[in-house]
């Protein structure tokens, strides 16, 4: 295995560890959203309450790390594939 391929493989493993961290953060935020969603007593379909605004905020916070997790996992797979073709 060449030095460049080995570096790509090491970078892939490092990025994969970051993806696991983002995934744990994402799962924690989705669990927080689910918890708040189950506790929310909805007064109606179109009634805006403080709880519903909080739920939308938590949902937005949960979506961002989920997208980052997916992007870092794809990037790690690309690095692994590049290392395999270079070596």
Helix and strand pattern: HH
Which stretches are low in confidence, meaning pLDDT under 50 for 5 or more residues running?
Answer: none
Strand percentage lies at: under 5%
Main beta-sheet annotation: none
Number of domains: 1
What is the overall silhouette? rod-shaped
- Number of helical segments with 4 or more residues: 2
- Number of beta strands: 0
Distance between the termini: 5 Å
List its traits.
85% helix; 87 residues; 2 helices; mainly alpha
Question: What this model shows, in words?
Answer:
The chain crosses the membrane at residues 18-35, 55-76. With 87 residues, this protein is mostly helical. It has one domain (3-86). Helices cover 85% and strands 0% of the residues. Helix 1 runs antiparallel to helix 2 (50-86). The longest helix is centred in the first third of the chain and has 37 residues, at 3-39.
Quick gist of this model?
This protein has helices at residues 3-39, 50-86.
